[in-house]
Amino acid sequence: MKLLLISLLPTTENFGVKYIHAYLQQHGHQSAILFVPRHDPAIQKPLREFVDTYRPDLIGCGLMSYEAPFAASIGKLLKESHPHIPFLAGGIHPTVAPEECLDYADMVALGESEETILEMAKHLDAGSDLKAINNLVFKHDGDTVKNPLRPRIEDLDSIPCPGHFPAHSYVYHQNSILPMDLRLFRKYTRYDGKAYNIISSRGCPFSCSYCCNSFLSKLYGTKSIRKRSPQNVIKELRSEVEQFPDIILINIHDDCFLAHNKEWHQEFVKDYKKWVARPFIVRSTPLHLTEEKISILKEAGLAWVTMGLQSGSERVNKDVFHRKVSNKQFLDATRLAKHHGVSGYYDVILDNPFEEEEDVIHTLRVLQQVPKPFQLQLFTLTFYKGTEIYRMMQEKMGSKGDLTIQNYFNYQPTYVNKLVRISPLITSKMMDYFIANRKNRYAKLLLSIFHFCIVTVIEPLSYFYLMLRGFNNKLVLTIKIAIPTFKTKIGERLMSFK
Q1: In b/e form, how buried is each residue of 97-130, taking b as 16+ CB within 10 angstroms?
Q2: How far apart are CA 353 and CA 364, in angstroms?
Q3: Cα torsion for 362, 215, 18, 232, to the nearest 10°?
């Protein structure tokens, strides 16, 4: 059975599609991935020709909400040009808005899709009816039919690893669809492919109102986190760094890697130092970052930790974002990171219509207390269907306005947003001045000058220093990762304001 999986992310780092690709191959099916990093209408002709040549029996497209309009154009094109090939939409957006996706897809796969698509491949082989498969949503006689939800995969060790550079991959490049080679892989992979991305668990201990995890927790009726064994994680990492020795950084994408217990981390660290021995980045909630865990992980090469503040207003965090983290707990976690020489990368959400200006001032006051140096990752509040914040915003707006999905990096260039961005790189006295004089036109002009200078010059230098510090002052190693990192990270950050 031949299947074609389409990824619409701007990079090759699509865990969902790569996991399904590996799962199908493990079970003897012929699978190919087509990476479409640019949402270009000119893809129509090369896509038709590629499908004519490859001749898949099923086409699946994994998508998030901001990719939905382009996915719709692809789905409609393929339904017109190849109506005999079933087109399946999967991923978080089809899971939360299946009926919307049925306007251009023959079927939608809800939730995790490894077992669903494998069963579809088996049914196609046997000539059986696809519409008997659990997790599928489809139209029948004008009505929407939603089949029962299959249980989640509990044994994550049973799923094959997605790999760094999956075999049988293609990429849309310069108006052509080409086999993925190493040059194209490096072009369309963040950090030039020198960082390896991995997940050791699925799920999050929180149910924040703006996050799809809150929807998935309700869908499956549980917030439990499923975890791979440390041996299974090390097996994947060892295999990939042996195959790609130029990998110099491991990027662990778990929603909360520190949700593993102490024994898991101890086992992981023992084999990691022996077989992998590269600096790594983790994500955590402030509540899970403890003295004991950070001490264990630092020994193995923990360089960076990403955590969310989101808002310095405890009212907003509690009542709007549904986050059970106090400012004190966040600040205690940042001090632990600083104490252990782990560089901090902290998330803040801007452009929140549920905040007043004073709430943003609270955020600035909290950021004043974070031990320097640190970096911020800033997002504009985005309202994804299926999330609690989406429902709250619909109630707030009534029938007015729209909740069109936007690029979550493109926050508004307001006075307070600019001040948040430069907060890691100015003194407390400067911060006090800009807060106190935020209505003064001269202060606004001065802030714009400071903002430009800091973003273009000081911020990149600070980022390099944080990398050096996180990598235990190893200058050669830092330079090796700095060049591809700046190409990726600074490019993304400079696009924040349009």
Answers
A1: bbebbbebbbbbbbbbbbbbbbbbbebbeeeeeb
A2: 17
A3: 80
Predicted pLDDT of residue 241: 97
Identify whether the C-beta of residue 253 lies closer than 8 Å to the C-beta of residue 199.
yes
Residue with tokens 């109102």: 209
pLDDT tens digit sequence for 144-173: 999 999 999 999 999 999 999 999 999 999
Other CB atoms within a 10 A radius of the CB of residue 10 amount to: 15
Residue 490: what pLDDT? 58
Residue pair 365/330 in contact (Cβ under 8 Å)? The answer is no
CA distance 183 to 460: 27
Structure tokens at 173: 């490049």
Short-list 305, 308, 301, 276, CA closest to 290: 305
Give DSSP secondary structure letters for 281-333. EEE--GGG--HHHHHHHHHHTEEEEEEEEE-S-HHIIIIIS-----HHHHHHH
- Give the pLDDT confidence score for residue 393 in this predicted structure: 92
The predicted structure's pLDDT at residue 58: 97
CA max distance for the chain:
74
> Tell me, what DSSP letter sits at residue 116?
H
Counting as low any pLDDT under 70, the low residues of the chain are 399-402, 404-406, 489-498
> In terms of DSSP H, where are the helices of 27-140?
44-54, 68-81, 92-96, 98-101, 114-126
- Rounded to 5 degrees, what angle do the CA atoms 254, 247, 335 make? 50
**Residues 379-415: tens digit of each pLDDT:** 999 998 889 999 999 898 875 556 766 677 789 999 9
Q: Are 98 and 137 in contact (CB under 8 A)?
A: yes
Q: pTM higher than 0.85, yes or no?
A: yes
